[in-house]
Amino acid sequence: MIARGLSRDFYDTDAVYEETYGETIAATFKNSGEAVFRTRETEILSLLCGAPNAVIATGGGIVLRERNVLTLKEHCLVIELCALPETIFERVKDNAARPLLSDMRISTIEQLYASRKDLYAAARDMRICTDGKSPAGVAEEAAAWVQEAIGHGPTV
Questions:
Q1: Total-model pTM
Q2: What is the pLDDT of residues 48-107, one digit of tens each?
Q3: Cβ neighbourhood burial of 134 (10 Å; 0-12, 13-18, 19+)
Q4: Do the beta carbons of residue 3 and residue 140 sit within 8 Å?
Q5: Which residues pair with 82 in a beta bridge?
Q6: Which among 60, 80, 82, 90 is least surrounded, fewest beta carbons within 10 Å?
C-alpha cells in the first residue's frame, strides 16, 4: 500500500528470500539454522537496496546484523511499524511462517521486542505505531512522511 501511494515498486525480503532460495524461512531455520538464514537475508537486503524507487518490507530480525543497519541507513529511509505485543499476537498467532514466534505467547513477543528495541531505534528514521489504525491509514501516514521528507528521493 505504501509503495502504491508513492508510485514505487514493492519488495518483501521474506518473499524474495523464499523465491530465491526455493524454501520457506521456517524450513531454513529447521534445516540449516538461523545463522544461514541471516546470511542469506543480508544478501537479499543488499540486492534490494540497489533497486531504484522501491519500498522494501523487511522482517524484524533484519536489524540483528550491524551490516544490515548500515546498508539500510546508507540506501534507505527506514520506517519502523510498531504495535503493542497484544496487537502483534492477534496479527500473527496463526502464522506458522514466523519461526521465532513458534512459541507464541505475548511474553515471547515482549522479550523479542525488548532484545531489539535499541537496534530498531538505531535503524529507523521514522516510527509509526499501528495500533487501532487501518492498513490504509498507516500507508497514507507513511507515504505522506516520505513525500515530506524527500519528495521523490531514494528507496524507502
A1: 0.84
A2: 998 988 999 999 999 999 999 999 999 999 999 999 999 988 888 776 666 655 567 888
A3: exposed
A4: no
A5: 129
A6: 90
Please give the domain boundaries of the chain with CATH numbers for all domains: 2-150 (3.40.50.300)
Residue 75 identity (one-letter amino acid): H
Q: Which of 50, 62, 81, 72 is nearest to 145 (CA)?
A: 81
Provide the grid cell at 124.
529507523
φ/ψ (deg, to 5) at 98: -105, 90
Strands 9-12 vs 54-57: parallel, antiparallel or unpaired: parallel
**φ and ψ at 95, to 5 degrees?**
-100, 105
Q: How many C-beta neighbours within 10 Å does residue 13 have? A: 21
Whole-angstrom distance, CA of residue 60 vs CA of residue 21: 20
* 63 alpha carbon, distance to own chain's centre: 9
Q: Would you state the pLDDT for residue 64? A: 95
Identity at 25, one-letter amino acid code: I
